[in-house]
What we know:
There is one protein chain. The protein is α/β, with parallel strands linked by helices and about 400 residues long. Strand 10 (about 380-390) and strand 11 (about 395-400) form a beta hairpin. The strands form 2 sheets. The chain has a 9-stranded mixed β-sheet, with helices on both faces. The protein is globular and about 60 Å long. The chain has a single domain, classed as Rossmann fold. The chain contains 14 helices and 11 strands. Helix content is about 40%, strand content about 20%.
Amino acid sequence: MNTNSTTALQYSVDRKMEDSMDSTKLRDEFLQVLRSRSRRTAEVPLSVEPAQPVRDPLNQETPKPTFSKAMESTPKKDIPNFKELIQEENLYLITEDGDQGHLPVLILSMKESSEKRRPAIVFLHSTNKCKEWLRPLLEAYASRDYMAIAIDSRYHGERASSLTTYRDALVSSWKKGNTMPFVFDTVWDLIKLADYLTQREDVDPSRIGITGESLGGMHAWFAAAADTRYAVVVPIIGVQGFRWAVEHDKWQARVDSIKAVFEEARIDLGKSTIDKEVVEKVWDRIAPGLASRFDSPYTIPAIAPRPLLILNGKEDPRCPIDGLELSESRTRKAYEDPDYLNNFEVVAEPGIGHQMTPLMVKRASDWFDKFLKLFKFRSVYKKQVLWFRGPEHFVVGHSHRL
């Protein structure tokens, strides 16, 4: 090998090490924020309690028919007597002290499988919905021999007592600053969920995917940035640039989706209208770092080199596509190694606003099949990377890559 080639190779190795160190530092800082609220000063051991199926699930708003139609379009294997061959598990994971420390989990899977350890996918619902709303997705993926998992995010579903529980939690977070109901507290739950899934004898710990829609897409994005045990990632209409939106006066649609907390902040700050200052202060209070060091230009690249498919609508006012230019360019650099070039893709569907579509559902399905199923049966080589093994520490392990 000549001197120039050696120098180029060394630069490539140094760059990868630097990127790994940057991602490790970001994860460490993010975990410190997740732990920062008072109730987590004494963490509880992860434990499991049995639960019963939810007969009358609580949606804090009526789901739109278009979203239900998209879920029902999920590719599903035609299996005679399917309902008799599928099994359902309901349980609670105890992730911390307090009522919100009970994480409701719903798992659908086939009773019999050709694989002892199956790939698993975690599905995350949108604002004011619940895990039961995702049942069409769960059944479709279970029919294709995935372990299909859904949870109720904080202050939703079984973790809500009324139609205003989530709204009230957001306002309380602004007032007291002792919880993070917008995204971050549920990310803590998803780290604990990864602890549980990797211990199950029927789940392949190296083949766990995560996806979600809208708020659920944000949960998937941040959980994958925090925990590399989520091996394949597909956020749907969730990825956005929070800082970009503030700087370019494009924050209104996102703010309107949870407006009560911003109105409360406006009053407390003595403002006549919600403005840029109000938005910045609310984000920093209820999700510290969301519009700064943990925004998409920093946390999305941290998912590399794991397969990441971002699905958005080109006309989505809540997730403006122009606000992803910096995030996408930084992330492409994180995937620039020839071995990983095909592991990252961004698709903005023309003419679509803040809506999950059948095309998005199909693309997500194909992505999971490609990276969680097809790759398993091909020859692989090993590359050493930093793998995050829960909220306590990092360990060096091996990832399998084509």
